[in-house]
Amino acid sequence: MNFHQPHLMSAALLGGAVFLSSAVLADDGLGDYRSRFDPLPHLPPIPADNSLTDEKVELGKMLFFEPRISTSGVISCATCHNPALGWSDRIPRATGHQGQIGERNTPTVLNAGFLDAQFWDGREPDLEGQALGPIEAAVEMAMDLESALSRLDGFDIYQEHFAGAFPEDDDPVNEDNLAQALASFQRTLNTPNSPFDRYLRGDMNALDTQEKDGMVAFVDNGCIACHRGPNLSDSQFHAIQVPGSTDVGRYDVTGEEADKYRFRTPTLRNVAVTYPYMNNGATETLEEAVAIMGQEMLGQEFEEEKIDNIVAFLHTLTGEMPDFEVPALP
Amino acid sequence: MNFHQPHLMSAALLGGAVFLSSAVLADDGLGDYRSRFDPLPHLPPIPADNSLTDEKVELGKMLFFEPRISTSGVISCATCHNPALGWSDRIPRATGHQGQIGERNTPTVLNAGFLDAQFWDGREPDLEGQALGPIEAAVEMAMDLESALSRLDGFDIYQEHFAGAFPEDDDPVNEDNLAQALASFQRTLNTPNSPFDRYLRGDMNALDTQEKDGMVAFVDNGCIACHRGPNLSDSQFHAIQVPGSTDVGRYDVTGEEADKYRFRTPTLRNVAVTYPYMNNGATETLEEAVAIMGQEMLGQEFEEEKIDNIVAFLHTLTGEMPDFEVPALP
């Protein structure tokens, strides 16, 4: 405790609204816990065959907000991955073409580039593979890709942007480039500098006591076994049947009995702003979600205090939302 | 012609990318034409019983982007009045709840505060009256207002914002305030400083020769009779049956035979970015639209050059799009 130690005081003052309730902590003795986690980088890994360029990101942003690549002309990626709603939709299950309701809750695209398996059932390994699925899905945008590309090709501005983003292609308005551009934009949708990231990087006051107790419980009770790495997901598949769900999950992809009811671990980044929860979106609050995960995955009945602490910790995973402007479409 | 006149040269240089094709014009001799028009103010008239405050605008912005005041939970005002698409939707007819297609083309909300009659049939006089219609319309958001208000009331943040915007109300989450907040936000969605506005304010080079020829044709051929005032609409009702339309228009509102097929004059502000055109959205290009208006409203077959000039003029009516950030919703 060095309350009057000059350099700590000045650091606190320079840091702005630091609340000196009792002391500026040089260390809180939880280093072993912190070492189990990784702060979120500003960018996820970039694949060698899809370099991240400004031109692709700008085109990808336009495409992400483009409703005319849906059959109705009013549904875009941003309809369900709504930037006003944590880049998700905050309804239980995705609602798409002609109001059809899908089987699963919309995952946020925030930090999705840090996942090694996309969709709840991991049927695609990367964002390039993921990007075209919702355009074609009958319950989402319900558009065949040829028609989508033909609509885009009808606009000079898209022709120019595709050519600028993929200058080596003779015929750049194609499926692969549509996927690459969308994936590139999504790789910029990350949320660094959450309170927890600031804590991991050395700001001992970025978390309060309850939040730290939650972190300790998160580690000690084994949540971290699956929710690990920078995006707090192992990108692996684990069997779970949450209340109300009969969804067989990864079994749909592999047809293997062992994969029945397995789902890819969802990220916990920004989990406080991406409710409701679980593959069927039937769980409304983090308190319920934590209790269910304790029962289903860890075989434990968490007492209320533990739940409250873990929920407090989960709230510290909300980072800085991406800074972007709605593009002007042609 | 004062090509070498020092102060004009320096003004041109200071003004940036001014193209000195032949001369910097002190006056182009078209003052009589300019005097027929009004530049767009930054704000429309504000009604005495709904003062424009930051709190109402901020709340109105949240509500405008809020899909949970629709039955499906995915349709907001911004779905059809999409900021990426000129605050309209760029499809022929509005598409709403469960993919239902309405009868009419979505009007832009840009500069709507300058209109004295709202909707194509003018069934509401002002934005307060207009705001709740699409929430309730079965083919749009399909939500009863009581349920919409109840959903909003379920969020602490909305309770706080309503209380902050309407501090004198004991029970501020109500229909009137929902309408007032939405109307307030919409009154900020204006597009001043179009090339034509800069021209009207004295920048003789803001329009080129063809665009000025178009302005002259617009006046001389009588387009200005209905498309007048700052928003280039008289807010009056005129009978027109555009190709493919059987819509009786204002007759639906008044039941008077004389009102059959009458529609409120649409604004021409930003008309280049708010295609397609006409009450049924069946007209895709400005060239077609100008030709149809010549035939239907003025009894003239415009020659191609006149059409091209008027279209060039209409392009000068695209102003600066509103600067806004997508709100973070609870």
TrEMBL record, chains A, B:
Keyword Oxidoreductase: yes
Cytochrome c domain residues: 55-156, 209-318
The species this protein was found in: Halomonas korlensis
Binding of heme c 1, residues: C77, C80, H81, H97
InterPro entries assigned: Cyt_c-like_dom, Cyt_c-like_dom_sf, Cytochrome_c_Peroxidase/MauG, Di-haem_cyt_c_peroxidsae, MauG/Cytc_peroxidase
Name this polypeptide is given: Methylamine utilization protein MauG
GO CC annotation terms, alphabetical: periplasmic space
Cofactor(s) needed: heme
Pfam name, any one: CCP_MauG
